[in-house]
Write the structure tokens for this entry.
Amino acid sequence: MAAADDLAFDPWDPAFVSDPYPAYAELRDRGRVTYYEPTDQWLVPRHADVSALLRDRRLGRTYQHRFTHEDFDRTAPPPEHEPFHTLNDHGMLDLEPPDHTRIRRLVSKAFTPRTVEQLKPYVSQLAAELVDALVAKGGGDLLTDVAEPLPVAVIAEMLGIPESDRAPLRPWSADICGMYELSPSEDTAAKAVRASNEFSSYLRELIAARRKNPGDDLISGMIAAHDEDDDRLTEQELISTAVLLLNAGHEATVNSTVNGWWALFRNPDQLAALRADHSLIPSAVEELMRYDTPLQLFERWVLDEIEIDGTTIPRGAEIAMLFGAANHDPAVFTDPERLDLTRADNPHISFSAGIHYCIGAPLARIELAASMGALLERAPTLSLAAEPERKPNFVIRGLEGLSVEVE
């Protein structure tokens, strides 16, 4: 274990947030695990360790299925934060077996590969329409004109949220996701609580309507889903799952799109190769997700004492698995700091691994490929109009916007 006294890792430093990858290289060189006092976490930067720990059942996204807050020497969240935690704690991402197993199994009955595959024509048409509108006005903000509306519309369409009700979805999601950053402020918590209340109320009414008049949408499917024991999702599980699918179903895609195009503009040789050969789109999607990872950090609680490279990490500790660092590990990726759209062996972990592997990964790939294809085909002269600004967030990595022009 290495000490972190002089560590370049600083998630609140704008310079670090702008480019964390040199600090990640330092972390990997220091060792397999480093204690970081400011967040009371053990940082794990190497690909082999992150990949293994994501599958290690001695760790958990929560500890409350086995322990109390007092057992872990932790303080319960303030009562005023309860709406956020009720919403968050009943979603698959923050549950452990047996609840996670049951909910994922039931959701999977509605969220099938066939359901996702059937969306391809809709996704492609919507991507083409959004890009055509961008071209017609000679450019704009790739974030708000293409990257955001595509996945938000797709997941809303899947869930069965009427078009007239979709405007608040992205703001609600942004406010809720603010709580996933390290040490969120009280203002961030207040926004998340308000969004949790409003989103939950909306979904409660929509679920009631679908119970009376089911459709062929995902919410109706989740209401109807049951297993051999006739086990069903509770109303809170339905609400939390719908919110999770919306948030996770577009946050990563939005940020992957703008992070990816910003990387392409900074690597003109790779952009030129992609424009010359659109068959590179599938490998380009994977490489861009690796190169500038949309989710940089994923936390797990130590439920049973573990050892990493001779360092004992006790029960009750928190581990921060650094996806961005793992995706740049030279032990796994040849010349990892180089963007290579032809990279064939690309076991990035941007979609996580183990039981919490992203259930929406196939949909995200379809969306990213559709928007990239539409931009390459319909906006072949797309270029950067202004240097973008990074969002101050570290955990969920993205841009404030990406100004582009089309000649």
